[in-house]
Design goal:
6-stranded mixed β-sheet; Neutral Protease, domain 2; alpha+beta
Length: 355
């Protein structure tokens, strides 16, 4: 299952442009959609055994083992090996950014959560850069990250955003844990979990507190021609961009704006704004570094063994409240922050959440 950072509705908007100055960008968007569409009809694969209690990791956390490949603007994967672990910088900025981004992602999961790479068993981290011609996306394909170079008019290279790298590798963490089905509310949670950890990778690498962070996903992907800051804002969903070419960011920030659609696997990139804002509100209410408490609660929920692949928002909200209560105590500041955040975004609380 391919999970891409740029949603199809944004690419379709760009592909529809009749502006001659946007001809290359429109063609690139059309081509990118054609590449991606065949993967969107594939249903999520078999899940992990959610009835088994989590087991202790068998191995110690080892340093990252990173390999970067170059597709040389073809669509052949993995491409030619251009940098292995321990190799010197090649001088190719995309290779450098992918290599470094993998390291920052490994560091967050190892240092904040005691996780040994994506699978918690020291999985090597693989990435391919320069995929396709003007490819306007980046994706996790179940084995590796793949980065396009962008069209140069609307999108720049997709290695330029650390939150994107963290986001896509976090899809791998979800794959090896809750394996959330990539459709409807469970799919929106899948996307949101990746946004959460993508943001935390960036914040952890910069030493930023929850109050100081931008909470933007995909910052740095747009060229100067675009009126927008990023693909998504976790702090204020629906405000990341407002541009003549791309339209206005359509993400809702609460259940009042929930989008019921069959597009984009049931709105996985749209409705993820709702749980995204719940995490942001939790993090700023707790204060300090978001990866220390709020991130730990979300990580405990993802890896605790109680979450089903078809989990909906209300169930996930209950599980995060339960995780906060278990780790920090019922009625603690952390537990209260979680409960109030979900209430603010309009996700129906259960008796367990109410505590």
């Amino acid at each position: 299952m391919r999970q891409s950072i740029v949603p199809p509705y944004l690419l379709r908007q760009l592909a529809s442009s009749a502006d001659p100055a946007m001809a290359r960008a429109a063609a690139a968007a059309q081509s990118s959609l054609a590449r991606d569409d065949s993967f969107r009809s594939v249903r999520w694969g078999p899940g992990v055994d959610h009835t088994a209690a989590p087991t202790a990791r068998a191995r110690a956390i080892e340093p990252p083992v990173r390999t970067i490949f170059d597709a040389e603007n073809t669509e052949t994967l993995p491409g030619t090996t251009v940098r292995s672990e321990g190799d010197a910088d090649t001088g190719d900025i995309s290779v450098t950014e992918a290599h470094d981004g993998f390291g920052f992602t490994h560091a967050l999961f190892a240092e904040a959560f005691g996780r040994a790479s994506i699978d918690d068993d020291n999985l090597p981290l693989l990435g391919t850069v320069h995929y396709g011609e003007d490819y306007d996306n980046a994706f996790w394909d179940g084995q590796r990250m793949v980065f396009g170079d962008g069209d140069g008019t609307v999108f720049t290279r997709f290695t330029a955003s650390l939150s994107v790298i963290g986001h896509e590798l976090a899809h791998g963490v979800t794959q090896y844990t809750a394996n959330l089905a990539y459709e409807g509310q469970s799919g929106a949670l899948n996307e949101s979990v990746s946004d959460v950890f993508g943001a935390l990778v960036e914040q952890h690498s910069r030493g930023q507190s929850a109050a100081d962070a931008s909470w933007l996903i995909g910052e740095g992907l747009f060229t100067d021609r675009v009126q927008g800051d990023a693909l998504r804002s976790m702090k204020a969903p629906g405000t990341a961009y407002d541009d003549d070419m791309l339209g206005k960011d359509p993400q809702p920030d609460s259940m009042d704006g929930y989008v019921d659609t069959t597009d984009d696997n049931g709105g996985v990139h749209l409705n993820s704004g709702i749980p995204n804002r719940a995490f942001y509100l939790t993090a700023v209410a707790i204060g300090g570094n978001a990866w220390e408490a709020a991130g730990q609660i979300w990580y405990d929920t993802l890896t605790g063994g109680d979450i089903a692949p078809t989990c909906d928002f209300a169930t996930f909200a209950t599980l995060t409240a339960d995780a906060a209560s278990l780790r920090y105590g019922d009625g603690s500041a952390e537990h209260t922050a979680v409960v109030e955040a979900w209430q603010t975004v309009g996700v129906t609380e259960s008796a367990t959440m109410a505590g």
